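Milestone M4 deliverable, item 7.
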Amino acid sequence: MSEQPDNLVLVYLRRIDEKLDRLSDEVRDVKMRATALEESLAGVNRRLDRVETRLDRIERRLDLVELPH
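Output delivered:
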């Protein structure tokens, strides 16, 4: 008995399913990378805040800024 070919709709559904699996993996990877970038940016912002605080203190000590009245 010869095998009948798969239903064409099933063939396309399987292809779509495979593509969705790949897309899901790629989206997961992008989310992880975006989270890592956000965390890195938060660290940079914390460092800049500390530098700004130190710079303000240095400017006050050297009388480079006017104190508020």
